[in-house]
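Hello,

Following up on my earlier ticket. Below are the two sequence lines again, exactly as submitted.
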Amino acid sequence: MLNQATVQRRGRAIAAQVKTEPAAVRWLLIAAALGFMALFVLLPLAVVFVSAFEKGMGVYLASIREPDALAAIQLTLLTAALAVPLNLIFGVIAAWAIAKFEFKGKNVLITLIDLPFSVSPVVSGLIYVLIFGLHGWFGSWLNEHDIKIIFAVPGIVLATIFVTFPFVARELIPLMQAQGNEEEEAALSLGASGWQTFIRVTLPNLKWGLLYGVILCNARAMGEFGAVSVVSGHIRGLTNTMTLHVEILYNEYNSAAAFAVASLLALLALVTLVAKSVVEWKTKQKSHVESSPSVQEEIA
Amino acid sequence: MALLLKKRSVLPGFGLTLGFTLLYLSLIVLIPLAGTFLKTASLSWTQFWETITAPRALASYRLSFGASFIAALLNSIFGLVVAWVLVRYQFPGKRLIDAMVDLPFALPTAVAGIAFTAVYSSQGWIGKLLEPLGLQVAFTPLGITLVLTFIGLPFVVRTVQPVLEDIEPELEEAAATLGAPRWRTFRRVIFPTIWPALVTGFAMAFARAVGEYGSVIFIAGNMPMRTEITPLLIITKLEQYDYAGATALAVVMLVVSFALLLLINLLQEWSSRFHKVN
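Thanks for your patience. The regenerated structure is below:
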């Protein structure tokens, strides 16, 4: 005679069995997934670091210490230091308007904010050339006043702002919508000013989502290539960002140096992934009720 | 601004924040994009049409759209397998693989481009093995397709994964109790649920691949008519100071991306509605 516990245990075992695949199928699928990831993600990543150190530590250090490389690193840092805070401020303000109020045309506005993700990077650069370039709308006026935007740093910053435009806003909008208005309304009714309410109530709630958006925005700002390539003019030591410097070195068949600088960018990508995972883990941990920042990413 | 409000709110700052949002959006995004469309007005309609239907342009569309389509297809198949394995099975290194799915978003495209070229060139780790077989990857459309597959990898995985996580086990149990073999349960119960998300992921990967530039130009070889993608043709025209020609092609790309964006929005709506019903 079977006792009740045995029956239950068997029942559970059968239930588990019908919900999964035969072991052979499971292992085949895992092998396919791991093979695909190894071939498409791990192998290219490994080749960057192996090629960077191919000619030894000396060549590696020399490649990232030479003046042109240092200038490129500086320009990349400067560009991110301008583009990320500007888009951060925009993201917070846009999220406030969109999440806290009900108004006509809201969905259209959200779609428009997402627009830069679906524009090809090359076109993102081109639109500024058409406005500020020598043959563009303001070209001759800028030329007369000796202001350079295209083939200069301002153009690079502008193009970077464009491609990283939606990151912070699209992270914050769903988060703020999920949190609702009650806490802010309570603060206001207790006599806090609008600004105090924002700083003391809204901002602390947004902390992780904000950080998440900034991490992604920064990775893209430092890594952008196509848009920056169109507006930069590729002047060594002056308008070359790190990615453009990698391209020049690579096209000069200076593979070890190209991969040395590329390895810094790859390292940045790895740091980004770790930071992103930590933030996702923190948000999940904080609360199961509040929705975590969406893992949705850019469209284009 | 207040006229736009549907409902009065006690929260302050609506006019100010919406005004700033619209101003910044217009200056950075809307006016420059509109300017591009205006610029094509300097071309007559016939000139415009001849530019965008020139044989070299047509060849570049075929390559850009063809390679992107195959890449998105590969991503749909393997992305589904990766998402499935990550949600359903336990294996060592699972969390690492999960995090690595996002690498294509974080890795600068130029780095991906030179890395893929290094792997698949005739002296590269894999290129070396394929060369005796007469298979050349670098500097051919095949190489372009591979690197576009890398670029689009996260889209399918990240759209399918949450839907798979939300499937209720009762559905599968019911199917099994009614005597359905596992494969039929997958085909009839699980697959219809994830199908909208899969299509959405496909469209996103495709849209991203069509506009991609940085990773492709290193592995493409960039031969006119053969391995020249549309974004590169735009750059070539710019470098020859053919601004009107470059703008005409840019307008074609913009129209395509807006159409894809609209499609993706509709798909997402369909997907979320589907998701709720189940």
